[in-house]
Amino acid sequence: MHQRIETHEDLLSFYRMQSEVTDPGPRKGAYDDLPNGIPDLCRVIQQNVIHMWWIGEETYGFTKDALESHERDIVDEISLRTVSDMLDRIFQMDPRPFGEPRDPLRRLVGNCRDYSVLLVSILRDRGIPARARTGTARYFFPDGSRLEDHWICEFWNDEKERWQQTDAQIDHVMLRAMKMALDPADLPAGQFPTGWQCYNELESGRIKPEGIGFSPDHCGMGYVLNKILADMASVTGDEILPWAGWEIGGPDGGTQPGDRELAERMVELLRGIDELAILQEARDLMVTHERVKRPEGYTADKFQRAWLN
């Protein structure tokens, strides 16, 4: 039985606790002597991780084939689920302190979730409430043509008494390539629609089904239901892999009687997730509802090499 959330301090304490995914485990000491500022922490993560879809001659000066020629199993790296395993792999490749910049060729190959859960892990280690969120980013396509799949970090800014959204992935290479004018360390409101907002974007007709998700195979309502499940799992303590999903959030999700009503209820829960009773209800739903709870023994498959093409 999980601890009940009855006060605002209970809520913040919940997001200070490491999850199975964000717990650095024996590598906790890697966070010693890291800088304090959010932009500086993002730079530390960026100097340890390289995004799988941004590797190229025109960005970092080498290709994925070049990495693999150095006997790097990049599929295995991308498939790592926990921060502890990510840190282990980072130090296997380069034993220097975590805060020291690594050559791009010796960085862990990962994805947007990895940047997010690493920042969440560091902030929770410092007693700062933080959580990973998944949804879509407007800022990758400012013309509004697409809502791009993405993960970010939210942390509680005690001074401003609000959740601050931070995209730890966007380094100087990406900023320059996309000509981004916004501050990734403090995303403007509305720039990152989370799971429930993705549902509203699609239902309202503001975005076409093919314009949200991964067209043509994983977009539209099937994609959005997966985002709802993944975001709900994340804010209740289970930061699942980006390609994970089951029941309502799986490949055949949304097809059972009552699924539409269930999706709409999850949307309302995510909309009010910072209300004490609603967070508690969301946590209960994630461990009791047959179409939402993680199936016993469920493990996401490994990332597929073909997805990199």
Please characterize this protein's 3D structure.
With 309 residues, the chain is of the alpha+beta class. It has one domain (8-308). It contains 11 helices and 7 strands. The protein has helices spanning 8-16, 38-46, 64-69, 74-78, 83-93, 112-125, 172-178, 195-203, 220-235, 259-271, 276-288, and strands spanning 49-51, 108-110, 130-137, 148-157, 162-166, 213-214, 218-219. A 3-stranded antiparallel sheet has the order 3-4-5. A two-stranded parallel ribbon has the order 1-2.
Question: What is the number of domains?
Answer: 1
Backbone CA Rg = 19 Å
SSE string = HHEHHHEHEEEHHEEHHH
Instruction: Report how far the terminal alpha carbons are from each other.
Output: 44 Å
Query: Roughly what is the average pLDDT, rounded to an integer?
Result: 95
Strand order of the largest sheet: 3-4-5
Number of E-type strands: 7
**Largest sheet: number of strands, sense, barrel closure:** 3 strands, antiparallel
Shape: globular
Secondary-structure-derived class: alpha+beta
SS field, number of helical segments: 11
* Poorly predicted spans: none
Proportion in β-strands: 5-15%
Helix fraction? 25-40%
Keywords:
alpha+beta; three-stranded antiparallel beta sheet; 7 strands; globular
